[in-house]
Amino acid sequence: MNRLKITNTMIEKAQPNGRAYALADAVVPGLLVIINPSGVKTFCLRLQSFRKKLGVYPYDKIEVARQKGIECHSEHLQEIRMKN
After folding, report:
1. Taking Cα atoms as reference points, which of 83, 54, 59 lies closest to residue 71?
2. Which of 8, 46, 50, 54 is deepest in the core (most CB within 10 A)?
């Protein structure tokens, strides 16, 4: 999966296929925009062994999803440090 600097225009132009597919963001590692066959576009953050839903386009924009992704990354790293 190639990583791109995702923009709101790219998300808007992404068309649903018969299967769900994802666009990976190059700015925030693990940030995905999942385009479902129904046309729903969801922001998710992939961390180690799980995914966290961050929002739905167009209610949330890519800038908001990136900020939420960075916050989730930092919280996840703090949890790991506390366990060790």
Report:
1. 54
2. 54
* 32-80 pLDDT tens trace: 999 999 999 999 999 877 888 899 998 889 999 999 998 888 888 888 7
Write out the E strands in 1-84.
3-4, 21-25, 31-35, 41-47, 50-57
Distance CA 78, CA 20 (A): 32
Which residue type is seen at 3?
R
Does the pLDDT of residue 8 top 70, yes or no? Answer: yes
Show me where the domains of the chain are located.
Answer: 3-83
Q: Does domain 3-83 bear CATH number 3.40.50.720?
A: no
Using alpha carbons only, give the angle 68, 71, 76 rounded to the nearest 5 degrees: 125
Phi, psi angles (nearest 5°) of residue 67: -60, -45
